[in-house]
Amino acid sequence: MKEKVMMEEERKGERKGNDQAAVMAIGAAHDDEQFDGEKWVHDSSIDHKGRIPLRASTGAWRASLFIIAIEFSERLSYFGLATSLIIYLTKVIHQDLKTATKSVNYWAGVTTLMPLFGGFLADAYLGRYFTVLASAIIYLMGLTLLTMSWFVPSLKPCEGEEVCQQPRKIHEVVFFLAIYLVSIGTGGHKPALESFGADQFDDDHAKERKSKMSYFNWWNFGLCSGLLLGVTVVVYIQEHVNWGTADIIFTAVMALSLVIFIAGKPVYRYRAPIGSPLTPMLRVLVAAFAKRNLPCPSDPSGLYEVAKSEKTKGRLLCHTDKLKFLDKAAIIEDNGNPVENKQCSRRLATVTQVEEVKLILNMIPIWLATLPFGICVAQAATFFIKQGTTLNRDIGGFLIPPASIYALAAIGMIISVTFYDKVLVPVLRRATGNERGIKILQRIGIGMIFSVITMVVAALVERKRLGIVKSNADNNLPEKGSMTMSVLWLAPQFLIIGFGDGFALVGLQEYFYDQVPDSMRSLGIAFYLSVIGAANFLSSLLITAVDRITEDHDGRSWFGKDLNSSRLDKFYWLLAVMTLANLCFYVVLAKRYSYRSVQRSSSVAVADCYDKDAEEV
């Protein structure tokens, strides 16, 4: 009798669980009336109440526009701070050019490497929404502390003066603490927010998939619009009012972006964190090593894979022939007990898990090959802006702040992204039959070509500037330096690097988001940001190495105490040659690269990446 009661209670529990599952699935039975792909989103996402999202009221552009607006606000604050940082360090903190450049590069490096940690937390434990929320609060704390460092009497750089020869040590400590808090905030904000925006589009829905291909273009349009406002209006306030007023604007804008982000909560689509993505990767490596002596089957269908109907999160990947050693992780060992073999997770991985490891390993050469491009980009926020301080910035009676010249890079990127999305892509789709127009790595390669051209133009302009400095010195007018040369001479190099960013930077974002496993989307964006971060560190190391190598017996090198005693033109030529040589290496990698292929049919257990059941993404 007791067993009967227990069985009845168990059946009731099962019925209750089944009822809840039915509500969550919104009739996810396989009859056509209930399974409506146009009405419901079946891509493992949920709405803010934990239910399967309605396509008409969640996600897509209605949600991503909130996120792009937040990126606009955050980038206004970030670039308003970042582009003027070298000027603040030299004018207020009184660091010399070499030290200030290294300080900026180290800060930029930390800021763009921190997303590796933030992206991991977002994917594995916190989820993207809560990662953005927490990091935005830390970001706001940093900006609040930055504002206090200017207005609180005991933290101000000087007592009763805005500029002094030696600022207080406490101001330096608080200032660097504030900007590194901003770095930590950016570490979670950047990878989680951008991937959260891309998550609003369903890859299995044709219309939303095409919209997602435009998402990264318009994301960068919002980014550049915020950058444009940050390096013009805000930088003008820094130059002509004071730094503290600009800090108040940064703080207010960041607080507003936090409110906007929370307001969009009902229309977002969410992805639940699924634990560390490193665990299945480690399993593949351990299983492949444990079965290293087994021969790989000639037919990939002999490898282990879960049925597509059992795959609850992510998509099944197709088998590829590269890195075949790793395929051994998916071999089912024949020891007389097939059930036990499959349950021994430490010695068995699925084909999809193996292919995910291959994806990450294949990305490493591409990541390395994009570092020289990142080094070129790093010059725009340091030496390019510092060059602007030595030129005549009077345009029609209006004195342009040095950092505002960076706005031309943003304008170049806006033009590039808009032209690419609205003109090039439709034409290229018809010409190539590729949904993207051209392959992602081809887009990145075009941007690299622009970076080579940028360095050549920058070298020629700097050579001309140094010629004017020498001419004025020969005419006993050394105090004029290069002030007789207009700052507009810098316009071409900023515009060209902006054009290149529209191809390479946007391409890198798309590449690292699309080509990583589905469980690592935030980390994918972090990988993109780490290119820029590592490039900033490498730029500092390169400056140190070149400084020592080129130093003569009199202690002079390519990097002097100021620009007029330096030879930046030679440094730019060096970067142009390095980037050009690297571009040749990159072309070889891009031609040999295999893009991720997703199974589009459940008719096979393991699909080869070249057969009809595979779809390249």
Please specify the SSE layout and strand pairing.
Elements: H1 2-25, H2 60-82, H3 85-91, H4 97-113, H5 115-126, H6 128-151, H7 169-198, H8 206-240, H9 243-263, H10 278-290, H11 338-343, H12 351-369, H13 371-380, H14 383-388, E1 394-395, E2 398-399, H15 407-432, H16 440-474, H17 491-514, H18 521-549, H19 568-592, E3 597-599, E4 614-616
Antiparallel strand pairs: 1-2, 3-4
Helix pairs in contact: 2-7, 2-8, 2-9, 3-4, 4-7, 4-18, 5-6, 5-7, 5-18, 6-7, 6-9, 7-18, 8-9, 8-15, 8-17, 10-12, 13-18, 13-19, 15-17, 16-17, 16-19, 17-18
Family: Belongs to the major facilitator superfamily. Proton-dependent oligopeptide transporter (POT/PTR) (TC 2.A.17) family.
Subcellular location: Membrane
Keywords: Membrane, Phosphoprotein, Transmembrane, Transmembrane helix
What is the CATH homologous superfamily assignment of the largest domain? MFS general substrate transporter like domains
Overall, the morphology is globular
| Percent in helix | 55-70%
Major sheet description? 2 strands, antiparallel
Query: Would you report the number of β strands?
Result: 4
Q: How big is the Rg? A: 27 Å
Largest sheet: spatial strand order = 1-2
Low-confidence stretches: 1-35, 610-614
CATH architecture of the largest domain: Up-down Bundle
- One letter per element, helices H and strands E, the order comes to HHHHHHHHHHHHHHEEHHHHHEE
Strand content: under 5%
Termini gap: 58 Å
Count of discrete domains = 3
Structural class: mainly alpha
Q: What is the overall pLDDT average? A: 82
